[in-house]
Structures are given as structure tokens and as C-alpha cells.
Amino acid sequence: MIILLISIHVIIGIFLIAVVLLQTGKAGNIADVFGGGGSMAAFGARGAATVLSRVTTVAAILFMITSLGLSLVRNRQESIMKGQPVQQQAPKAPPTQKK
Predict the structure, then answer these.
(1) Cβ atoms < 10 Å from Cβ of 76
(2) Do residues 18 and 56 make contact, with C-beta atoms less than 8 angstroms apart?
(3) Is 17 helix (H, G, I), strand (E, B) or coil?
(4) What is the pLDDT of residues 57-77, one digit of tens each?
């Protein structure tokens, strides 16, 4: 089960990276740097959501779901460190100097 979930998680992660890299940036022109390419809207121009932005949203949601699933499955499994005591060392006092 965990192997299948990890495989799906990796595939979705690679797909999400590819889709994000395919998108164009919002500030594409040199005119945008100096204020020549903006709109009169308060928060900038926002066109209709493209297919790539919708695919990005779906892939991000699936990535989060598989991340949550992996954390839940991993918490139910027995830890590889179980049975080994945790060794904690007492903090060392700083050396004192005699005058």
C-alpha cells in the first residue's frame, strides 16, 4: 500500500513541477517593471483561469492529499527506532576559572 502511495505521490510531484514550469509569468515585459504594462485594477489584471492554472490547482490538491495519506499510513506503522532507548546527555556545566 505504501509503495503504491509513494509512487503516485512522486508522479504527481513531477507532474506538478512540469505544469508550473510551463506557465508564463505575470510580469513578462520590461514595460511592466516601470509601470507601463499594468491595468487600472486595484490588484492588477487577472484574466480567466487557464487550463494550466486549473491543472495546477488539481495537481496541488492531489499532492496535498497524497502527502496527508503518506503521513497517516506512516504513523500507523511501527517505528524502526522502537525498542531502542533514547540516550539523553545531561547538559555540561561551563568550566569554572580560578582566580
Answers:
(1) 7
(2) no
(3) helix
(4) 999 999 999 999 998 887 766
* C-alpha to C-alpha distances, 48 to 33, 34, 71, nearest whole angstrom: 23, 25, 35
What residues contact 81, with CB distance under 8 A and at least 6 apart?
Answer: none
- How many Å apart are CA 52 and CA 20, to the nearest integer? 8
pLDDT for the residue numbered 92: 74
C-alpha cell at 4: 503504491
Mean confidence (pLDDT) of the chain: 75
- The domain ranges of the chain are 1-23+49-77
Angle of helix 51-76 relative to helix 2-22, nearest 10 degrees, comes to: 150
